[in-house]
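Please produce the structure of this protein holding zinc ion.
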Amino acid sequence: MRFNFRPQSHWRFKRFRYRTEVLRCASCGTVNVTPRPVCRRCRSRNLLREELPERGRLVAFTVVKSPTEEHKELAPYIVGLVEFEDGTRVVTQITDSDPEELRTGMTVERVVRKITHDGDSGIIVYGFKFRPLVS
Amino acid sequence: MRNVHVVGVGYTRIGEHWDESLTELMAEASLAAIEDAGVERVDGVYVASTFCEVTNNQAGISALIAEALGLRSVYGVRVEGGESSGMMALMEAYAAVASGLVDFALVVGGEKLSDLLPDEFNSVHSMTLPYDSMGFAGVTPASIAALLYRAYLERYEIPQEFIAQFPVLMHNNAEGISHAQFPFKVKLEDVLGSPEVAPPLRRLECFAPCDGAAAVIFASEDSQTKRSSGQTVRIGGISMKTDYVSPFDREDPLFMTSVALSVDEALLRSGISRGELDVLEVHDSYSIVAPLILESGGFSSRGESCPDLKMSKYALEGELPINTFGGLKARGHPLGATALYQVAEVYLQLTGRAGKRQIDGARAGAAISVSGFGTIAGTAVMLSGEGE
Ligand SMILES: [Zn+2]
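Below is the modeled complex.
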C-alpha cells in the first residue's frame, strides 16, 4: 500500500473531492479550496462551507501524455482549468471526451469518476472530474 | 550583520551516476568545494535535498553527509523547499554566517532521480504541487506549465517558436561543458518536433531527471582562507518569498510575485540595480518558466522577453547573459542541487574561472531559484571585489 492512498487521508478530503465543497470567506469572499482555519487573503476565521457550482467554464486544457505512476493507466488524459461564475478556478481532469471535442469557453459539468486504485487489494479512489455539458 | 563571502565551489557532472549513492555524490561535491576554498574547518553543514526520503529512504541526512566528510560534532541541518531547496539552504547558511553563529558554512545540494522510472519520477515531482487539490487528481507540473504556456501564447499573440527558443539558447550555452547533462546543441526544429509531454509543451522544452550534487562554501568576511587576499565574491543580498501554491489563485497566473519581491529585495540589500548585473541565472525548468521569471523579475517588460531573446539580449554576447552553462534544461536540474550549481556558476563568472563561457569583466551576478511556478522563489545577488 502506498502511503498516499491510506483510506483515512483520502476520506479526510471527501468534501472537496466528492462534492467540490470549499471554504468561502465571509469577510472578503475568497474561496479557499482545501480545509484550513483562516482565509489565505484576509486571515478571517469566518469561513463558510459552500459547494462550488456544478457547472463552470473551460478556460484552457492540455493532455497529460507523461503521467504519474498512480494515474498512468488512464493516460493520456485531459487536464483543464475550469472557472466558475464567481471567478474561482480549479485545475481538474476533463473526462468523457476527446481533446478534439473541447474548445475553450465551453460549459463543463461536474461528475464523480474513478481517480486511481491502490493495486488489487487497496482502495479505489474516486473524485470529481468535469465533462462537457450534455445539452 | 557580517559580510558573507563565497570562498569555494565544487560540483559533480550531472547525469546518471549508477555506481554512486546520493551520499557519495554530495560528499564529492563538498570535498571539491572545501579544497577549492582552502578552509581548515567547517562548522555548519547545510544540506539541500528535495526528495531524499522518497528516493533514498533517508531522513536525517545531514549527519550522514557530515560523517562522509569526516566531520563530527558539527551543526548539520537539511533544508527542503521544493525545487528551490538549494537556495533555501544558502539562505539559512547566509543567515548563520552573517549573524556570527557559524564562521564557515558548507552548503551542499544533491539529488538522485535517475533510478526512478519516468512515471515514478512524475509522481515524485508532482509533490511540488499542492497534493490534496492537484497531485491527487493527476495534475502534473508539466500540465500546469502547459496551461500557463497556452495563456501566454494567447495573451501576447505569439507563436510557440518564440518560447521554444529558450531551450535552444540553453543547449548552445551548455555545448562542451563538462559538468552539463546535455552538452550539445539542439535546433529549433528538434525542439518543436520532439514528442508532446502536455501540448503545447514538448519533451525538449522540459528538464530531464538526473543525478548531481553541488556545493558552496560561505565564510564570514573576517575569517581567514587562502583566498582572503586577491579577488573576493560577496553575497550582496539574498531573499526568498512564498506565494499561493496554485498560480491560478493569484491575480495574474503569468506573474510570479515571489520572483518580483525576492529580486527587488536582494537587489536592495546589495545596493545595486538590475542594470548593474552582468550575468543572471534563471530557473528554466520548462521553456515557459524562463520568460515568466524574466518578466516577473523586471528584466523584460511583460510580453517582451521573447522579443528580447530574439534580439540577443540574453545571449552570451548580449546585455544580460542568462544561464551561461546551460541552465536547468541543458546543464541539468537535480532539484535540491540546482541553486548550488547556479550560485557556483555565477561565482566562476565573477572570479574569471568560467573558461569558454567567461563573460568579460563580470562583476555582479544573480541567481533566481523557483519552486513550481512561483510557489517559492529566491534570489541571491553576488558581487566581486578586491580583498585586502
Ligand atoms: Zn478573506
